[in-house]
Amino acid sequence: METRRTVTGSRNFKGGLTLWLILWLLVMKPGRVAPCPKLCVCYPTPMTVSCQSQNLTIVPAGVPYDSQRVFLQNNRITELRADSFGFETQVLWLYGNNITWIEAGAFSNLRVLEELDLGDNPSLRHLEGGAFRGLEKLQSLHMHRCKLATLPHDLFHKLYSLQFLYLQENQLHFLQDDLFSDLVNLNHLFLHGNRIRALSENVFRGLVNLDRLLLHDNRIRQVNRRAFRDLGRLTILYLFNNSLAELPGQAMKDAQGIQFLRLNGNPWSCGCEALPLWEWFRDARISSSELLCTSPSQRRGQDLRFLRELDFALCPLPDPGSMAGTTTTTFSTKTRWWFSKHKPASSSKASFQKSSESVKSFPFAAVKPQYLPKTPTEALSSKYELSEHEAALPKVDQEEYWSNYGNEDSSIRCYELECPPNYDNPSFSSSSSSPFTPSLLSLLSLSIVTLSLHFLFG
Description:
- Helix content is 19%, strand content 12%.
- It is of the alpha/beta class.
- The model is unreliable at 25-32, 321-387 and 389-438 (pLDDT under 50).
- The termini are far apart.
- It has a domain at 172-313: Ribonuclease Inhibitor (Leucine-rich repeat, LRR (right-handed beta-alpha superhelix)).
- The protein has seven helices and 20 strands.
- The longest helix is centred in the first third of the chain and has 31 residues, at 2-32.
């Protein structure tokens, strides 16, 4: 009797357990394997929702909250609103749509998002300041070819993990100061193909880990001398096909890690304004494109990197005692020989200042130097043209100049204010003997005194 009761109780227990398992599976199955949105295809491990090229006009409803990859590219989606996406998405592709507006905080729930592609949305001309709020783990952001004209100053606020930023081929005219200041881990910045005209002092502030900066195919005319001050780790810089006539040497000194530099396709002026960049190239050990001069006329077609010290001999240099003080003209001993032998026919004493400083000589290169024009009329009528006195200098025969370069003629004394302060020093004095020696002058003076006394006192 007791055995029968035991068997009956055991059967009831097993039946109850089976019923509980069935009910549990019925309840939990929809949550574990959610239905895939209409017109989409879903893949497990990792959970992927693919809805590309389906002519969708809105983000489809019912995207599983645990979807790690969501592909919505090549549709006709026009707006992105808050709460459109789940919590666990790591990759979100929205390129090739017709997005015109992104609500502030539209991605705020995507706390683990690592890649966001919004490229090729030609109607996305404006972004809200908080459009990317909450994406503190975002590593790659694509916004190429969106016709963006401006970027809000706080657009990249707190995107500390961002490493790749694609902003090429938009319509950006300028970049605000401190726009990228929070992007301390940014490695690649693509800004080519825009309409940027100038780079200010603080435009790249904070980009201490930037390795690659592409700024080619813009309209850049001016670069602040401190624009690259935080780019000490930059190795690749592209500035070709812009409107640069000059580039501050200090800006390049700040980018001390540069290895590959492209500056071709710019209208380089190779007058005195090119001296700082030329001096930087003397010490730089980098792979560089050519820098062809467009002015002044006698240097047109030459490569700025291979100009000679003589080309800058008349250029004023900053006074070493003041960053913004007066300027002084300096000559090396090698260029002084040329000026002493070929002095201008007319010169103003105010044209030069005395200086004992000398300029380093540029190492010889297999490039023939170009010389000053024969007449002043050959100079360009621009702010970079040669001065009247510089243009009046006669042309020197190449063989004559280079045969004496570095072996100046000690018999030629300096002229007027071209002389250093201690030009009377024996090293600068003439070695040829004077027609009147000191002994002869003394004898002549004594004779004059004797004759004077004779006539006075009989």
